[in-house]
Every structure is written in structure tokens, then in C-alpha cells.
Amino acid sequence: MKYYLGVDLGGTNIKAGITDENGNILLKSSIRTDSEGNAKKIADQMVGLCQSLVKKSEISMDDVVSVGVGIPGTVDAETGMVIYCNNLDMDGAPIGAMMQEALQKPVHLANDASCAALGEFFCGSGKQYNSVILVTLGTGVGGGIILNGKLWEGLEGAGAEIGHMVLHAGGEPCSCGRRGCFEAYSSATALVNQTKAAMRKHPLSLLNAVADKSGKVSAKTAFDAMRKGDTVAKDVVENYLFYLSEGVANLINIFAPEAIILGGGVCNEGDTLLVPLKEQVVAKCYGGDLIHHADISIASLGNDAGLIGAAMLYKA
Amino acid sequence: MKYYLGVDLGGTNIKAGITDENGNILLKSSIRTDSEGNAKKIADQMVGLCQSLVKKSEISMDDVVSVGVGIPGTVDAETGMVIYCNNLDMDGAPIGAMMQEALQKPVHLANDASCAALGEFFCGSGKQYNSVILVTLGTGVGGGIILNGKLWEGLEGAGAEIGHMVLHAGGEPCSCGRRGCFEAYSSATALVNQTKAAMRKHPLSLLNAVADKSGKVSAKTAFDAMRKGDTVAKDVVENYLFYLSEGVANLINIFAPEAIILGGGVCNEGDTLLVPLKEQVVAKCYGGDLIHHADISIASLGNDAGLIGAAMLYKA
Fold this sequence. Notes:
2 copies of one chain form a homodimer.
Chain A: E1 3-9, E2 13-19, E3 25-32, H1 39-56, E4 64-71, E5 74-76, E6 81-84, H2 95-103, E7 107-111, H3 112-123, E8 132-137, E9 141-147, E10 150-151, H4 182-186, H5 188-201, H6 206-214, H7 221-227, H8 231-255, E11 259-263, H9 271-284, E12 295-298, H10 305-311
Parallel strand pairs in A: 1-4, 4-7, 8-11, 11-12
Antiparallel strand pairs in A: 1-2, 2-3, 5-6, 8-9, 9-10
């Protein structure tokens, strides 16, 4: 049988897994990223993790057809080069070639959100579609674009930066240097900041009690306080939904994909997020009811999406 | 030799042309659109124009391989149905089948901005690229998306509505019912409105004299008054460039295409528009100087882009 290695490189952890040709995980493992290390060190870590994983498994390296790696940055898939990586010291590093030499297998690189999109596309919520856009609501807002079954990454892999689509020109500052990006309104980080601002402005709101009880302000705080009937929390959630629906409607107007899949921690809210979001998005899509717009659903693979998608890069 | 018919249906005129397989125009003609007519009437007009054009030419209908039609609305290319057309009464009409029966040739439909993009891609400013996004700055803001040499129109042809990407949530009202769309800031219509507002606010500005002299306020007024040294006009142009650069940078961050091509009347300003636009866009693109971003240029086929692209639909 044929097996595939998938690696999901993150700023904190490196996850890797062995999958079959359909993306089913045979075995997985993770280690802490040497985030202070250079490209060579990190490539060595990934190679080592792959080798130890195969050793622990029932298969041998001979059974592995190819290796896929999701990188938290901009990647040129053709050359296997990392072009730009915000969190790790690998700008311009030939990670593909380095790993290929060490493992003696074809190595495919892609952006980590693109890998997560592929994972959902082949094995998760995107299974029944041909064209899917994944929107991850986490520390930032990430995106993966699959059109007619193929990953769209753009020139030198710099595309799919949907978190840096401006929704409110001149608005909230974004980590990218621009103002008003989707990420500055719809990431989990942004929701936490919006919640904190409401807490400062309304010290008597239940938001404060809920945060105190859980020991911190999280993306869950506003939803929890809203469920307890707090009107300030309801406003926070509604404002969050307003911008999220603007961003999702933009993507539908631009791509008209078959599906938008939402990932990231905020999606743990399930229907509390999804039901009002769908309503608002439909009202904002061009052509309104005359056109069948994209289905909107929540990602189903959780943290495994990235490594599964990386393993599936061989057929993307 | 093989020839192709291209039809560009507009709310005011129907243009048609005979091209060779490379999009070179042999002969073209146009008539006024029966804009009050139903779908059958308009289809008959397009068929009649095609037939009379071939009669006037040196070729016969036997030399025509296929017919392409650009529709000012949402089109399902697979079924040849018009899904949604704002200006003409053809929602749900099987225009493809109607014309195919009358002309006894394969008929391909697409959105008119998609056709213009194809025209520029095969025969104009987009010739040297594989992935191009056309942005037309006219009555509205239209878009055509070509990725890896193929037109991307999305589910039921509803994609590429880039004019309805919101740039300023809750901002200027748009004809689509939303607020803050790209179209509401960057269309020629929007520029005229912005110019008129500045004229009202600054009755002594040169804008007024320039408009009086030409007999109307146009997309040219602010540029002309700026060239004469008027500071109010300069502010109007700078505000226009600010939003246009936001929209173009968004498209680059989302797609990372090889090129963005700008069309429509506003582009007659040439480098006065293009040079400062490029500067602002680069500063707004994710990854900044580390990434080679899309070339930005101005469309070269003018009003023929739509009919050439329609004729070229056979290979799109």
C-alpha cells in the first residue's frame, strides 16, 4: 500500500502524520518548534519527526510515496522555497530541497492555511464540493482557496491572504501595516480585543464576571455572557457577526464558490455563530435570492486538517 | 479558414464582430438594443446582427465555428441560461439555446466583463500573462477573472462581482443594496459624484470652471482641474486613488495574479492615474517588498475587448 507523510509546521509546534492515499491518519506525533532556530535547524526537526514517526509505525520509508509540508508563510510550490515567513527565520530558504535530500522523497510545500483547506476538501466538510474557500478565524484570519479541485495559491504562492482584504478602509490597525483588514475585525484575537474594550466601557456587564470566572478573556467570553442574557455581550457578538458576514459575503461575490468553510476556535460556538451569520451573508450577496449562493459550514477536522492536507498535496 | 462571431450585449447597444481564431477583427457592426424588449426580442436582435454581419463580409455562415455572447449580468455558461440581468428583461431566459437554434452554431455565453477580460487576455494588455484580473471602472466596477488561462466565473456564473466587494463596511450606499462597495467608491459614476460634492462644498474651486467649460461634470473634471493646479481637485483625485488602491491591493492579496488590468473611461488618464496608483498598491500588499506583486496596467482594446473576448469564448 502507498502512504504519505504530512507535516504541519507552526510557530509553537510541528505536527506530523502518516496517512493513506485518502488522508486517513495511521499515526501522528508532534514536537515543539525550535522557534529560535534557523531554516536548517527547523528543516532538520521536521525530517527527524518524519523519520521517528515512520520508525514507530508499521510501515517503512519504502512505503512512503511523498511528503507534504504546510508552512506558516508564503511558499513558492514550484521551487520549494519559503518566500516569506513572519514568525520563523526561513525567508528565502529552500526547505523543499533540504527535506527532499534528507528524506529521499518528493517534498511538496504549501501555505499552512492552504493545507488545512485541502484537508477539509478531501476528508472533511468540503468533501462534496469542487470549489471551496476555507476561512480560519484564529490568531489571524487565514484562507485557503480550492477552485475546480485545485489549490489556488497565486504568483509565488502569495495569494489567499484573505485576512488582508480590507473591509473598512482606514479602520482598525492590522499586524500587516494596513488598516481595516478582515483579520483586524474577525480573528479570535480581534474578538478578544473587542470584548476587552466592551468590558472597560461597561464594568458592570456580565462580561467581567464571566471573564473573572474563567480566569481570562477569550473568544468564548462574549458568547458565554450573551447566553446569560447580557446585552453588552450581545452587542459585541453582533458587531463581530457584522464584520464576519461582510468578509464572507465579499468572498462569495468575488468567487461564487460552492462552499465557504469556517475554521478556528471561534467556530466552537457552532450554530450560535453559523445561523445568524448565514442570514446576514445571504442578504449581502450580489443577486440576492435570485442566485444560489455558497453553502456555509464549519470545518470538521479540527487541528488535523493541516497535516492531512499536507499529506494530500501530492494530488492537489 | 475558421471564423468566430462575438456579440457584446449592452443596455444601450449590441456590438458584434467576426474574428479569426486569434481574435483579429475582420468586420464589426452595432445596433441599438431594444432595451424595452423581452428576452426573445433581444435574442432575435443578436441573431439578426450576426446574420447581417456575415452577409456583409467575405465569409459565409459555413466558415463560422461558434458564436460567443457577453451578457451584462449573471450567466450559467453550462446551461446557456441568463440567471440575473439588472438592466434587461432576461432573468431565467435560455439565450444560449435560443440563439443556437436560430444560428445552428454552438453558442457560448459569459458575463460581459468576463468577455472583456478574455479579450485583453488573448489579444490585449494581458497577452503575456497566465493569470489576469480585469477591473473595469465605468458606470459600475466590473471584473473578469482569468486563472491559469481559464475564465473563473463561479457557481452559476455568479462570481467575479468584484465591484461588490465591500471596502468600507457601512460606508457609501451601493446600487446593490449594500454599503461601502468598491463600486460605490471607484466607478466613474462615483468619481463624478465625489467631484460634484467637492464642487458644492468649494464653489470657488477650479472644478466649477472646468465643468462649466466642458458643459458637464465627468470623470475627467477632477483630473483636468488638478492639472491646472486646483488643490480641491487634487484632494478629489487623491481620495479616489486611496479607495482604488485599497480595492486593487485586496485583489492582489486574495489572488496574487500575474497582472491586474484596469479598463473603463477613467483609465484615459493614463499615467496620471497609474503611477500614483502603483505606488499606493505596493505599499498595501501583504509581504511588501519581499514578494513580487502583480503588474498593473491599462487595458488596450477599448470598446472592442468585449466582442473579441466573446468570440474567443470557444477556447476559454
